[in-house]
TrEMBL record:
GO terms for molecular function: ATP binding; D-serine ammonia-lyase activity; L-serine ammonia-lyase activity; magnesium ion binding; pyridoxal phosphate binding; serine racemase activity; threonine racemase activity. PANTHER family: SERINE / THREONINE RACEMASE FAMILY MEMBER (PTHR43050), SERINE RACEMASE (PTHR43050:SF1). Residues 19-307 form the Tryptophan synthase beta chain-like PALP domain. Signal peptide: none annotated. InterPro entries: TrpB-like_PALP, TrpB-like_PALP_sf. Keywords: Lyase, Pyridoxal phosphate. It comes from Dyadobacter luteus. Belongs to the serine/threonine dehydratase family. This is Threonine/serine dehydratase.
Amino acid sequence: MMTHAPNRENIQQAHELIAPFIHRTPIMTSSALNAISGAELYFKCENLQKIGAFKARGALNAVLSLPGQDRVNGIATHSSGNHAQAIAWAAAKVGTKAFIVMPDNSPLVKIKAVEGYGAEITFCKNTPEERESTVLQIVERTGATFIHPFNNYEVITGQATVAKELIEDSDPALDVIVAPVGGGGLLSGTALSARYFSPGTKVYAAEPEGAADAVLSFRNGRIEKAPYVNTIADGLLTYLGDKTFPIIHGHVADVLTVSDQEIIDAMRLLWERMKLVVEPSGAVSLAMVLKNKALFEGKRIGIVISGGNVDLGRLPF
């Protein structure tokens, strides 16, 4: 297992390792959204990725990086949905069992997808403490190898390939990349890829007001918990880890928050104007850019759409 933050070579190697199994997702544009934002927007569509989210990259890199003996008893993790699906999918790829701990209020569409990949699900109350204690019990019972959903360097390295592709497929270079932040696996990977492959590109984080731990952590220089947790963006409820936080604090330009209504409005724009199925967490980056037009006016901006696993029976608009 990696014991240091990924370097340029680690990210390149991870990309080569996972490339045969994932989609190189498209970058899409919209003249209508350019006009609304006052900027040139380039959407990296990880909603079109395997399992419907960027999480496929980190999970697969982590699973493929394990020695064979560490896969024998299966893989365990905890997740509200997208990492759960990713681990279940990656475990199936290498022919081993997946043991997934999910909050009891996880979206039904994500529960069904995890079941569809053949994983064994254990439900728990939706708190970080309950998730962690439950998965530890499963590891003790089964001997499975635990892969953390974001606070794991192999996972971070896999997530970094999103921005690596975005940078490689954008010409001329982007001024800014915006990524959502929950636990920080995607954001820290994005920040490292920008540093190594496009040093002139700034990285900004977008976070829901109803899960605003990263902005507090970024401002105060230490890992903080959100003062309250209540947001439609169910994929961004976790707080930063001791591996993701130092990378984010050192290499991200700023963390800016958006309200649930701003997330819903951005989500609707993506559905209506670009015909893209995007979940609330995947719309947070666009919402933040639209909220801060003066900051981003006239710039070339890469926007990571992190996922599209939305419950079609419970759309917020």
